[in-house]
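Example (one chain per record):
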Amino acid sequence: MHSPAAAEELSAVAGICGVIVEGATSSSSLFRPNCPVIAVDSSNDAGLSDIQLEDGMSLDKLKTTIEQSPIASATLVQLSRNNHHASVFDALFAESLAYSTLQHSEPFLSWLASEKPTNIKHFVGPAIIAERQANQLVLVLNRPENRNAWSTDMRDALAEQLQLACADDTIKGITLKANGPAFGAGGDLTEFGAARDAGIAHVSRQTRSPAQLMHILRDKITVMLHGACVGAGIELPAFATSIVAQPKAFFQLPEVQFGLIPGAGGSASILKRIGRSRFNYMALSGERISAQVALKWRLIDKLIDANDV
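Predicted structure:
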């Protein structure tokens, strides 16, 4: 780890998908492999490794994803290294650039060609129901038949309501919850690949950003989670200061398996809540995280009875 030539050899472009480290290492090296570095020994310095395995974590799941999606995996850990010490706004900027780049990568385009659904659904009613209750604003995701998959319509509706909340000082609290069996089942797959120009996609993402608005309003927001909280369904809630969840809720970041990375703000919000190692584990393993584990990791703040959501 003390040689630029060695670091270059330990890279995805050189055919090395990841590095597993046993025993103690030092973080003083200027040269780190640009692929995932996984420490299987707790004595390893966290500054060097991207993931420090804990009890219950699966090395096999990590290896499967990293070998399947080496470029997305390398991009993810490099992004997490950058965002670990970055401001939220700088982290969101870097994430947007990385996500836009991967949207035009061969692995993602190949996945898209074989997996993108064609049964586009048409919905009745607003994507988000907004209700003012005295000095409180209640926002309800309202695409239950689509498990509240994150779509352009939902992004625009949430951004509009959060912009209004930023401008209205009489709003003292915001509650965000969802109708249907899931809070949010990830991105709307029928919209995947719609962005044809990486530059426009990046600038658009930075122009209308619910993630930025969630961060700005974080101290006013309580999010109530249930069911599947996948991709954007946990990336956006993680900005809030208060997150409560039903005991059967679960959390997942599956994007790397598609050749992408989390792109709704997770490398800023989730990373800063649970730390770089656990964020990388969630994203690289694609594993479902239970509400109980999420509480232990501080991804959520409290478990509540199902009747309270």
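Caption: The chain has a mean pLDDT of 91.
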